[in-house]
Design goal:
The chain is built from 16 helices and 15 strands. It is an alpha/beta fold and 462 residues long. It has 2 domains: 144 residues, Alpha-Beta Complex (Aspartate Aminotransferase, domain 1), CATH 3.90.1150; 272 residues, Type I PLP-dependent aspartate aminotransferase-like (Major domain) (Aspartate Aminotransferase, domain 2), CATH 3.40.640.10. Bound molecules: pyridoxal-5'-phosphate.
Length: 462
């Protein structure tokens, strides 16, 4: 879209009229927002002509990279042929049917059914109603409670934010809603104390069993979790964690909802993150890389057993005007075709993933970096003033992370801060040369952060 406004005019209009998500509005208004104007491959361009390496694939979503004309062409064609029709009243359309079929092929096991939404949040709200309705339809209406995790992220709608374990979100708007409880996360770096990672992984998994026994197994409908926590700071759990969770879920007959909104469609080097961990989900939340972010679409992949119960229980009174939107479905199909035919998921597993892993893990050689974790193309580092004790910084949490993030942007790299963890999830099409450039900018930014916090007296352990 073209504009005759200058950057300053656009910033003023943005501050006057645009409320931003997860943003302190007046602080941003005073500073002036950065305006992204175009993008190609793994690079963004802003209104001042900076070319920025997007280490976050937008918000984890632009898997195939920016600027793929195929998706634009498919969208335009679909808009001309059938821009919209709903799937409520005994109708369907070719994009919806084809995408549902394709997803059933891609998903392992008996995940053969899809309920479409337009986002990950809506999909998780769908899941909330789906699992409660499932147990009620099976004659166990008291099986209603859902167990989730502190510092998990599942979206911003009421149900999804209640699943999430973000205290700052719960504080605004009276969340979580009743019937959703949280257990602790498997974040060994921050919370593992003197325990070994493996022992800690088991301890945190066993909190699930304790919670089930406390509530009563006949009261628990489902457990929801991200295979790897994304927005919580890319927390890759110890290897002992998931096998123990799987054992517990099977033992007590509790549904597993794997939130694959970030991990899904190749991020970890498999089509789904749960494939690394032997998880057998009954429901899988999908969004983000499903369309590489070119259009909004999400969904819930559902097992044969859950779908059969829902299908046989009368009407499921739930749906969105844009469930299975034909343009979004057509674009998602084209995106999945590109991911598959260009071997992008395999490349993450066999080429770029192993290439960056070695370089990423070597970041622990930097004086500021404690742990460095990576799986496929999703990675994090923990910044610390003292790695031997895994100390936090003395100042307010996130001060150093935010400083580091701003330095990264000044060095034309998008790397996100979560507290004092730094995270990346670049487009899956990133090449080895571009990984070299990314790592160069990460090192440069860490060096500059280190100098700055030394100079400002922030290099203090809490
Ligand atoms: C982003 C995200 C969501 C929410 O998706 P939206 O499309 O923003 O509603 C849900 N779960 C996870 C794991 C996410 O990262």
């Amino acid at each position: 879209m073209e504009t005759n406004y200058t950057t300053e005019q656009l910033q003023r209009l943005d501050a006057a009229h645009h409320l931003h998500p997860f943003t302190h509005g007046s602080a941003l208004g005073a500073k002036g927002v950065r305006i992204i104007t175009e993008a190609d491959g793994v690079f963004l361009r802003d209104s001042q002509g900076n070319e920025i390496l997007d280490g976050m694939a937008g918000l984890w979503c632009v898997a195939i990279g920016y600027g793929r004309d195929e998706l634009a062409d498919v969208a335009a064609e679909q808009m001309r042929q059938l821009p919209y029709y709903n799937t409520f009243f005994q109708t369907s359309h070719v994009p919806a049917i084809t995408l549902a079929t394709r997803l059933a092929e891609l998903a392992p096991g008996d995940l053969n059914h899809v309920f479409f939404s337009t986002s990950g949040s809506e999909a998780n709200d769908t899941n909330l109603r789906l699992v409660r309705h499932y147990w009620a339809a099976k004659g166990q209406p008291e099986k209603q409670t859902i167990i989730a995790r502190w510092n998990g992220y599942h979206g911003s709608t009421v149900g999804a934010a209640s699943f999430g374990g973000m205290k700052g979100m719960h504080e605004q708007g009276g969340l979580p809603i009743p019937g959703i409880v949280h257990i602790n996360q498997p974040d060994w770096w921050s919370e593992g104390g003197d325990t070994s990672p493996e022992e800690f992984g088991l301890q945190r998994a066993r909190e699930l069993e304790e919670k089930i026994l406390e509530l009563g197994e006949d009261k628990v409908a489902a457990f929801i979790a991200e295979p790897i926590q994304g927005a919580g700071g890319v927390i890759i759990p110890p290897d002992s964690y998931w096998p123990e969770i799987n054992r517990i879920l099977k033992k007590y007959d509790i549904l597993m909802i794997a939130d694959e909104v970030i991990c899904g469609f190749g991020r970890t080097g498999e089509w789904f993150g749960f494939q690394h961990y032997g998880i057998e989900p009954d429901i899988v939340t999908i969004a983000k890389a499903l369309s590489s972010g070119y259009v909004p679409i999400g969904g819930s992949l559902v097992s044969d057993e859950v779908a059969a119960v829902i299908n046989d229980s009368g009407e499921f009174n739930h749906g969105f005007t844009y469930s299975a939107h034909p343009v979004a479905a057509a674009v998602a199909l084209e995106n999945l075709r590109i991911l598959k035919e260009e071997g992008i998921v395999d490349r993450v597993k066999e080429t770029t993933g192993p290439y960056i892993k070695e370089k990423w893990e070597a970041l622990t050689d930097h004086p500021l970096v404690g742990e460095a974790k990576i799986k496929g193309l999703i990675a994090s580092i923990a910044l610390t003033p003292d790695k031997s004790t895994r100390a936090k910084f003395a100042g307010e949490e996130g001060t150093v992370g935010t400083l580091c993030r701003d330095i990264c942007v000044a060095n034309n790299l998008v790397m996100r801060a979560v507290g004092d963890r730094m995270i990346i999830a670049p487009p899956l099409v990133i090449t080895n040369d571009e990984i070299d450039l990314l790592m160069e900018r990460v090192w440069q930014s860490l060096d500059q952060t280190y100098e700055r916090i030394q100079a400002e007296g922030l290099l203090q352990a809490a």
